[in-house]
Amino acid sequence: MNHKENDLVLPGEVLCTYEEYIPSSWTYVEDGYIKASINGRILIDDDERTISVSSINAPECLKVGDYVIGHITEVKQNKALVTIKMIKGNNREIVTGYKGFIHISKANEDFVSSLHDMFKIGDIVEAKVVNIYGFEYIDLSTSEEETGVIKAMCVDCRKFMKLVDNKLVCECGKTDSRNISSNYGGI
Ligand SMILES: [Zn+2]
């Protein structure tokens, strides 16, 4: 153990070895050590054997397993970037800039060859938090049925599209497809 409870730590700082505690909020594991992913104070739960960092800046603490709503800001072949706007089930908008990404391996249950057809810039997605490496580096998954695009933005006119018979249709006449959530249209 490198620190005691309530110590202030910076992102990347070693908290303890992986054997000592179970990593919880705002921590990650690297080379056998549990490290802090944000600046904050160390919290230790001796009953649960967990170690976490309590954020100083974050009004809302994001946890692995949370479902979040965000919008797509960039789509690459292997990675779609997401700006997270809120934690699902908690309708307070997050004010700090949490950013995440959906890797191609976690976009869908089925094999995907490119993310370009699955997400477009401006789409609103629901995703599950898989890992938190830092404020701007949150690993997200849309492989569960209820996750994926919940509102698709038309690439021609930038309006949100309607889902009609499993097909996205825009009032401008454009039709398209996406990696659609079973909750399409709802939040
Ligand atoms: Zn349109």
Give the SSE map.
Layout: E1 8-9, E2 14-17, E3 22-23, E4 27-30, E5 33-36, E6 40-45, E7 50-55, E8 67-75, E9 79-87, E10 90-93, E11 99-103, E12 124-134, E13 137-141, E14 148-151, E15 162-164, E16 167-169, E17 175-176
Parallel strand pairs: 3-7, 11-13
Antiparallel strand pairs: 1-6, 2-5, 4-5, 6-7, 8-9, 8-12, 9-10, 9-11, 12-13, 12-14, 15-16, 16-17
Bound molecules: zinc ion.
What is the percent of helical residues? under 10%
- H/E order of the elements? EEEEEEEEEEEEEEEEE
**CA(first)-CA(last) distance:** 42 Å
Number of strands: 17
- Major sheet: arrangement of strands: 8-9-11-13-12
Secondary structure tally, helices: 0
What is the count of structural domains?
2
Multimerization state:
single chain
Average pLDDT confidence is 89
- Biggest β-sheet: count, sense, barrel? 5 strands, mixed, barrel
CATH class of the largest domain: Mainly Beta
- Rg from alpha-carbon coordinates: 18 Å
Parts with pLDDT < 50 across at least 5 consecutive residues: none
Question: What do we call the CATH topology of the largest domain?
Answer: OB fold (Dihydrolipoamide Acetyltransferase, E2P)
CATH superfamily of the largest domain: Nucleic acid-binding proteins
Overall, the morphology is: elongated
Bound compounds:
zinc ion
β-strand amount:
35-45%
SSE class: mainly beta
CATH architecture of the largest domain: Beta Barrel
